[in-house]
Write a structure and sequence with these properties.
The chain folds into two domains: 8-54; 60-142, no CATH class. By secondary structure, the protein is mainly α. The chain has helices at 8-53, 56-61, 87-101, 126-131, 136-142.
Amino acid sequence: MRITYSTAADRAKAAAETRKASRRFVELLALACTSLISLAGLVLVYNAKTAAASDIEQQLGERRVVDLSRVQTAADLLPGLTAIADPTERRIVSERLYAFVTATDGGGTRRMPESVAALGRATVTAGDIARDRRLAFLKERLKPAPVSSGRLRPMPSEPSRC
């Protein structure tokens, strides 16, 4: 039988190293758990993002979604303007948006909107409203409010989105 000789300091040092290794294992285990939770979160986000895009081709085919980079005529925009009830107004808005989307920049290249939010920059001037009979529904909105009352004139019952 072997007899080992160790001092109290050696035994204390060995116990401290064992405790240190035990703490490192707990840290490693916690790091692995948080990594797995983060990975699961990323998988969930990826699935949520791609689920909506999976049937985009079908929606494009059914004309429920409009690809602004492939618009050829103002009529291509009509399916996306169903919020506008009046067909004449919807057609006029589609023509204005088509003109905005297909406008060219200074170099002659077609303007490509970065997102649908870029359509918010499309405008109709007061001169356009005065010249175009089809824009009569906007003429009421151009009339100045009475100054004496101090209040703004109420919007028409069915606001246009132009």
